[in-house]
């Protein structure tokens, strides 16, 4: 079969690899019908995630069809499933409290990280019963695909960790796919104002379409101060993953406010405790647990969430290299999320 293989920083190829096979009773083999690329995949390609070694098949967001299941799984051939970016054993201390991202039983973020991922024609999914979700009838592959990572990540790590509440001023720094997902998720809690900050005009335009009330390109500190009578934002969500944007968030938020970090960081950021200790800030980080996926899936099925605006480009699966080129150059291409489907 074909798969997208990482060969070290800056190196990848769409190539032949062995088809996966059942290795444990709880495994399932899933034929990948729709797959996307994540900003985390770009971080891996930059060398920001050294735990990913050469030879790894990348990707952790897919929708597909079960073709084989181990004797310990309730999944059946023909089941249409969402493959979660987080694998859960369902039995360890963390899984029992819904903290699936910290699974001690061989789960967590492993697809495209510690084991071969989903940017392939077929994928082995460990702990299939607790790591996949049956797709409701009438929900398209494209829409449910956005629930593999970006929507639960923005909802859990950004909005819920940030304690967004009705009437709040929420600043989202970074209007890429995950930042736009945070804008969408924040709207579910009726904030008073959502502000998006980015350097790219195309992404600020997208933020407006996704529901941001104000977009800012220049001098965000002064602009946010002006909009909040000098107080600052109640919640600042970091959705880029570079030191400068994290430090900006700590300056944009008001005393007593929340900074919720979503971005994947490849370099250290300075925590200015000499300034922050007195401001009563709450700073949270997190890997998504995907405990919210069933809720979000039901909301998509009911039409309460529309995931279609995230998708800007579509490719056949064999066009994986072209899809990476488009996704990695959003300022030139306007790409948000790209979807690749089986021919």
From TrEMBL:
Organism: Nonomuraea soli
Keywords, comma-separated and alphabetical: Metal-binding, Oxidoreductase, Zinc
Protein name: Alcohol dehydrogenase
A GO MF label: zinc ion binding
Family recorded in the similarity comment: Belongs to the zinc-containing alcohol dehydrogenase family.
Enzyme Commission numbers on file: 1.1.1.-
Hydrolase as UniProt keyword: no
Known cofactor(s): Zn(2+)
PANTHER family linked: NADP-DEPENDENT ISOPROPANOL DEHYDROGENASE, ZINC-TYPE ALCOHOL DEHYDROGENASE-LIKE
Domain of life according to the entry: Bacteria
SMART domains tied to this protein: PKS_ER
Pfam family for this entry, one: ADH_N
Record-annotated Enoyl reductase (ER) domain positions: 12-340
């Amino acid at each position: 079969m074909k798969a997208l293989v990482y060969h070290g920083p800056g190196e990848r190829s769409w190539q032949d690899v062995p088809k996966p096979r059942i290795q444990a009773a709880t495994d399932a083999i899933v034929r990948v019908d729709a797959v996307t690329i994540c900003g985390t995949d770009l971080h891996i390609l930059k060398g920001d995630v050294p735990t990913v070694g050469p030879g790894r098949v990348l990707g952790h967001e897919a929708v597909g069809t079960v073709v084989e299941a181990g004797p310990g799984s309730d999944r059946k051939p023909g089941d249409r499933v969402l493959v979660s970016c987080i694998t859960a054993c369902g039995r360890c201390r963390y899984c029992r409290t819904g903290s699936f991202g910290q699974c001690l039983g061989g789960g967590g973020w492993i697809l495209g990280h510690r084991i071969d991922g989903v940017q392939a024609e077929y994928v082995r999914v460990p702990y299939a019963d607790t790591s996949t979700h049956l797709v409701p009838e009438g929900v398209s592959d494209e829409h449910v695909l956005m629930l593999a990572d970006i929507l639960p990540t923005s909802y859990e790590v950004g909005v819920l960790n940030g304690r967004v509440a009705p009437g709040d001023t929420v600043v989202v720094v970074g209007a890429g796919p995950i930042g736009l997902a945070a804008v969408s998720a924040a709207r579910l809690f009726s904030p008073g104002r959502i502000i998006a900050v980015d350097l790219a005009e195309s992404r600020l335009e997208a933020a407006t379409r996704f529901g941001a009330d104000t977009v800012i390109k220049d001098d965000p500190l002064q602009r946010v101060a002006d909009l909040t009578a000098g107080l600052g934002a109640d919640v600042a969500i970091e959705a880029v993953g570079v030191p400068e944007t994290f430090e900006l968030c700590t300056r944009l938020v008001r005393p007593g406010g929340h900074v919720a970090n979503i971005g994947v960081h490849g370099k250290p950021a300075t925590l200015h405790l000499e300034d922050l200790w007195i401001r009563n800030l709450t700073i949270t980080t997190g890997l998504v647990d995907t405990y919210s996926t069933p809720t979000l899936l039901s909301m998509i099925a009911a039409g309460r969430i529309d995931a279609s605006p995230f998708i800007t480009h579509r490719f056949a699966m064999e066009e994986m290299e072209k899809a990476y080129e488009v996704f990695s150059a959003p300022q030139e291409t306007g790409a948000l999320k790209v979807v690749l489907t089986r021919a």
